[in-house]
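ok posting inputs for the tetrahydrodeoxyuridine job
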Amino acid sequence: MSGPIGRDDLERLLRAAREGIARAYAPYSGFPVGAAVLTVAGEVFAGCNVENAAYPLGLCAEAAALGAMVSAVGQRRLRAALVLIARPARAWPCGGCRQRLQEFMEADGMVYAAGLDLEPAGVPFAQLLPLAFGGHDLVLPTT
Ligand code: THU
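and the output
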C-alpha cells in the first residue's frame, strides 16, 4: 500500500486536523497548527501544537498526534500524516517532527501539507527525510 491516499481518507485527515487546529494552544507564536495521522489500519488521530511560557518546552502538532495514536491504540504504522496551518499557505513538518514521523512511517508513506482554502499537497516521506536515521541503525551488525 503506497502512493497518494484516497480522497475519503484525505478528507478524514483534513477534518481531524481542523479539529486539532481549533484547539491549538499557541499564544506565544500566534501560529496554530493542526496535525492528523492515518494508520495502516485506517484509524485517524489528531493533534495540535501546545506551547509553553518556557518556549523550548512547546510541543508540535505532529508530536501531539503521534502521542494520541500511541496512547489510544499502542504503536501503529502510519499510512499518511497531514499538517494544517491557519494561513493560505502550506508548511511542511519541522525537522524534529520528520524524525518523529520516521519512527512510525515507511519511506513510501505520504505526508501532506495543507493551508486555508488550499488543496493539500503530498509527498512521499522519503522526500522529506532521505537517508533517515532509525531503529534499523541501532541493530548491532552480525559479523
Ligand atoms: N509547529 C508545529 O506544530 N509543527 C511543525 O512542524 C512546525 C512548527 C509549531 C511549533 C510552534 O508552536 C509554532 O508552530 C511556531 O513554530
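notes: Helices lie at 7-22, 61-73, 95-102, 125-128. The radius of gyration is 15 Å.
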